[in-house]
Structures are given as structure tokens and as C-alpha cells.
Amino acid sequence: MKLGTFLALALTPVFALAQPAAPVADADRSTTPADRLAEAWWKNRWEAKVKATAEAQDSQLVFLGDSITQGWEGPGKKTWEEKFAAYKPLNLGFSGDRTEHLLWRIEQDKESLKKLNPKVAVILIGTNNTGHQQRPAGETTGGIKATLGALHAIWPQTKLLVLSVFPRGADANDPHRKLNDAINAEVAKLADKKTIFVQDISSSLMNADGTLSKDIMPDLLHLSPKGYELWAAAIEPKLKELGL
User: Fold this and answer.
1) What's the pLDDT tens digit per position in 21-47?
2) Exposure string (b/e) for 69-104, b if CB count within 10 Å is 16 or more?
3) What is the pTM of this model?
4) Which residues pair with 65 in a beta bridge?
């Protein structure tokens, strides 16, 4: 046997092992943890939040989600400090995250998260599943359900307050709005009123006719400072009901 042929045969198993994993099926993409470490800002924020989590052992309130949650550090900062500072809150919102990214963070950070014992965790996730790829409502709901299961495994005594996906688009005819409404109809069924609670604050963010105001959502998706005031006011009674 020629040396070249021998080497080719000998190395075949090594190359076979190095093949990339099969792509996640569409039906599983919302429930299969996935990172965004290739994005430098995301990686840096994740590392910073792992450190912040390790230092937040007396936090009684944790927020988890996407850019709308991350926005408590921007346009929502004043309201955050006024309304939540007493609870030593922790913000684990990452812009652009979908359910699979939040699941990855929970899985990777579980040892740090186990050191916390928050009374309430507020979860708002799913609008990027809609906006990025318009995934079916049931698929996104599956991702939200998986998120709640992962959090409950870490914090069995914590009350999990799931917020219905916020309205988006100018009015009820917007296809993204319709898809989020369909998600919310399914998410409402996840509440067991023992450790999982669902609150829909959509009416607090919309006009009476169902349209969105740019005073509250300048881009018809993200919140203005006024929008964060409305969010805090809407959940404040529920947080107290849940023990804060």
C-alpha cells in the first residue's frame, strides 16, 4: 500500500469525528440552548453578568429576558432605581436574545444562579423568536416553557412571574402583533399559581384602540422612559402579592 493511501485511510475516523453537529430541527430550535459567543459584545456582557450574579447573593428580584429587559439599564434606569432598588435587583436581559439563548445562559450559569435565592424572577422572552424568524407560536411557547422548567430546577421556591410577550407593531393587524398574541394565548396556560404566574400588561402599554404610541414605544417595539414607568406600575402590585 502506498504511504499516501495508508495515511488517508488512517486519518478518516479523525476527520469523521470533526464533522460539525447536525443542524437543530426547526421544531427544536426554540428549546435547544444556543450561545452567541461569536458576538464580542454579547460575550463580554455574559462574562460581566456571570460575575455580577456571583456577587448578588442578597438579590430578591431577578429580571431575565432580551433587549426590552436590558433596557432597564438605559431608558428604564431611573424607574429601576426608584421602584426596585430596595430589592437589590439583578438584570439578566440581553439584547437580541431568543428563548434558546436565554436557556443557554441559564444552563451555563446555573452554579452561580444556585447561590441566589430570589423571591421573584420576572421573565420576558419570545419577541425575537417572532421578529427574527416569525416562528410558530407553539414553538416559541415551548421555549418559554423550557425556560421556566430550567429556572424552577434551580430556584424551586422562587415565584416565577412570566410576562406575556409585549405588543409590537402599530396596531392589531400587524403580523408580528398577531403572532405575539397567539404566543400569549398559549403562555397563559402555563400558570400553576403556585410557583408560575403569568401577567399580561399589554393594556398598560397600548392606547384604548389597541394602537401603540411612539411616546411609549418609539420604534413600536422597545420602551421609552415612560414605557418603563408603565411596566413598573403594572407589575408592582403583583410583586407585592408574590412576597416582595
Assistant:
1) 556 678 799 999 999 999 999 999 999
2) bbbbeebbeebbeebbeebebbbbbbbebbbbbbbb
3) 0.89
4) 93, 124
